User: Fold this.
Amino acid sequence: MPDQSFNARERLKSRKLIQQLFKEGQNTFAYPLKWVYLPVEFDPDSPPVQFTVSVSKKTFKKAVDRNLLKRRIKEAYRLSKSEYIDRLKNSQKTFAVMAVYVGKTVEDYDTIQKSVLRNWNKMIRELTEKADLNNKD
Assistant:
């Protein structure tokens, strides 16, 4: 059975890395989530993907709403990650990923789950296209 946990080692917490992510990272977008991701230095001891979530305090004034959205995003990520992380392990890279909720209303879990899956697919597609381009050179 695939690992469906989301433990502390898999959480992106480094402020330095988050700042670098926004300066140098690439984006994918599938409403209501924007993903910013960045390949970082490979470390065989660390998980292949470190993930974090951001929900705007300006858009969602109530902490209850922000926390609900964060829980939904993390749950959708946790349930889908094993399939996609297997694809990323072959690349010999570690990735930092931040999901930014850009919607203006609280979306249901199904919408968020579809967005997470579309963002995974876009990210993998972009990374494989880059790898193909690098191999042709």
Notes: Residues 8 and 50 are 9 Å apart (CA to CA). Residues 8-136 form a domain with the Ribosomal Protein S5; domain 2 fold (CATH 3.30.230.10).
